[in-house]
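Dear support,

We are seeing what looks like truncated structure output for some complexes. This example has three components. We would appreciate it if you could run it in full and send us the complete token output so we can diff it against ours.
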Amino acid sequence: MTGMTSATQQDPAAGAPAPMADDDAPAAPQDRFLRRFVSNRAATAGAIVLAILIVMALAAPWLSSWDPTLQDLSQAFQKPSAAHWLGTDNLGRDVLARIMYGGRYTLLIGVIAVAIAAAIGVPIGLISGYYGASVDMVIQRGADILLSFNAFLLALILVAVLGVGMQSVTIAAGIGVMPQFIRIARAEALSIRETDYVAAAVNFGSGSGRIILRHVLPNALTPVIVYATLNIGTTILVAAGLGFLGLGVQPPTPEWGSMLGEARSYIFHAPMQMTFPGLAIFLAVLSFNLMGDGLRDALDPELR
Amino acid sequence: MGAFINYCVRRLLAAIVTLLGVVAVLIFTFQVLPGDPARVIAGPMASAEAVAKIRDEMGLDRSAVTQYVEYVGKVLRGDLGTSPRTRVPVLDEIAERLPYTVALAVLGTLLGVILGVPLGVVAAVRKDRWPDTLGSIVGVAGISLPVFWTGILLIVLFAVTWKILPAGGADSPASYVLPSLTLGIFSMAIISRMTRSTMIEKLDEDYVRTVRGKGVREITATRHALRNAAIPILTVVSLQFGTLLGGAVLTEIIFSWPGIGRLLIESIQARDFPMVQGIVLIFAAMFIVVNFVTDILYTVVDPRVRLY
Amino acid sequence: MTDPLLSIRNLKVEFRSRMSTVQAVGGVDLDIYPGETVGIVGESGSGKSVTMLAAMGLLPRTARVAVSGQVLLRGQDLLQMRPRQLRQIRGRDMALIPQDPMTCLDPVLRVGVQLREALRVHQRLTRKQARARGIELLRTVGIPEPEKRHDQFPHAYSGGMRQRAMIAMGIANDPALLIADEPTTALDVTVQAQIMDVLRQAQQQTQACLALITHDLGLIAEMADRVVVMYAGCIVESGDVHTIFKRPRHPYTVGLMASLPQGGDERHPLVPIPGNPPDLGAIPGGCPFHPRCALAQGRERCSNELPLLRDVSAADAGHRSACHYFEEIHGSGQWSRLAQEQAS
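Here is the complete output from our reference environment:
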């Protein structure tokens, strides 16, 4: 058995291993997370777009000199001009102002609806997953029933009963996405229940309620937050859809969905009118989706 | 075989239980919860006698449980009540329009699968290169577009500006194009995103590397991954069918489509609770049926699933 | 002196992510001669699997993997080959028996179909012929009732059977080089011995050379002709199997040998190698082993200069060590006790 014919050389210059960094401690998880998020260009773009929309909504009174509900029929259906940057609608109202003020309603409804959904759905899901057995089965049957409809249908039914208006829409949209939160909270509770630190807490005699509050909830929070961000897009679409049907925020209050619904009557006459509310909804939902995706990728240890 | 039938029966029972639960929720929502459902249905203008008549006809003065049992009994006999608005049996109205809604949902799903799956596969195989970026953009844009806006945009483009397709109704085959396309775009976005992430996961698995080690062509390796990805993708396709049923409501309004979605909205606006109840029941039943079929299909397609 | 069948020269593999760059393999030279069994030993993360996977071109195909160097199979550089040529070689001239039989078979296809795939990629066979050959292969690796097993799905196989099926796929086309990646790691101890027999038999039948990648020194002792010891992506020692076991000349190898539980009447405490495996994203400067090496003792050369693989002695042909001070190592067990005393 002969050995290798050529002497094995390891070139000391090429491929010299990188020296160990001075700072031995690994970067704090928050820094790493932020870096990953920012390096995701799509997510950052989404965040910027959202920031613009929020600023427009909040600073509307200063950014626009027009009253969004001021009608001037002589100025109806104006094309974009120096006076009206986005033109006017069928009642002569300034479209840009209505878009900016409208952001307040649409965005607010979206966020609050998700907050409602999470506030109700997450505890239910955690309890269902943690306690298991019959509690779980009952809750799951209930969730299954709700999941038999999709979010919009569920919201539609609720609005049919609760009546129209901003409050109803918000609650309806929230209940519409709530079943998803139950499901995801339950899944988290199921896996966290099996961890060592929970077992340790049980051994120490901590009560279930305490364990859920102190161990299960904080650890389940991360995927819930990601899910919440992704679901704001859904609630906005649901609320806007209801508004479009005239079942949401009532005129003359500018809400992007109802603006789109009003514009629909004029698509043959003035097709431009439906562009901007729809575009606004699209951008808002898009930015939340991009950010939600970015959040999920940044928090996921395996970078896709 | 026995285990399979056993499983089917169990899933069927679960489906029925869920459906019964849905009915309970509906009864509660429409017949119990509102302050005076008879008044709401009759309308604010109706006389006291008219309200009383409705209350009597629909049995709204009885206890919730009685109402529930009565309703279930009627449903089993094929009677979903009568619409106080049109005086026509609810079931008849629904039966007339249901095919149109189902047609839209099916066409939308088909479009979604035909366009979405290849897009997702290509995006996964060419990950981080331009097909992937394009696919991701299409995907995230597709789910962010409001269905009702897409529909209007398509109408403005194809019916108003170019005048090559009808803007509404279901009279001609051509009229099926735009509504299906509207739903299809949304469906395609969901399916392509799911396909992409599932394929990426499967392409990463060990057996794909083993297959490459045999010296096969890259497309064979992709086929292996796709075969394994088919099962999760199937689940998503069926789930989004349910989503499309909801989206169909808005699409039907925009395109004046004679389906049950538009009927639902009209009924809600007219406070026609029996009709609303009936339609929602049908929607839920459809969704439950689709879920049931998917569960069964899953066990048939996946050789690993052993039924206990 | 025959030519090596496989010749790896200065193979480097880097994995780049957004956050860091990990050097999995840092300049490996390796020759494998026809008919021999080479054992590649190391801990997890030593780069032993990555080296052979890179040689076959089976690393994840993302932009994040950088492979450089030469891999010569019968004189042709595999790293420079066009994909079509490489595909002809894979499975035919070089075959991989991958790690973890539980996940290496496609769960939705029958085993026979997967065998048939391995065969038909490189041989012109009809379905019937492929089926017959597949059954024969299953029989060769000792799977009972091969006709029945051929048409079953992977989940009907036990772990040991799956490993045998993987071996069958590996030898299906009579390759000249078999690469077995941790063939026994995922298996029970009782099954391990059987698999080793199957491997040995398969090798004898096909006259192939075998690259045996493992962290199990017992397996090496039983099966290998030559041993290559890897640490942190580099080869730290190589040589004849008897020499390596009796007269290791690298502190890491010595540590490995010393950490083997010793049978017999006397009770010896288990001697682990102190410290932890290195973080491949931040490999220490100089010799990668020096933070854990009793021989280094803060010597400057160890922390500054990367040691090259050098011949241990003129007499010991083929025995090489990458340690600045390997001359200070004598015997085997003796030195480790010395190290123990010094450490305490």
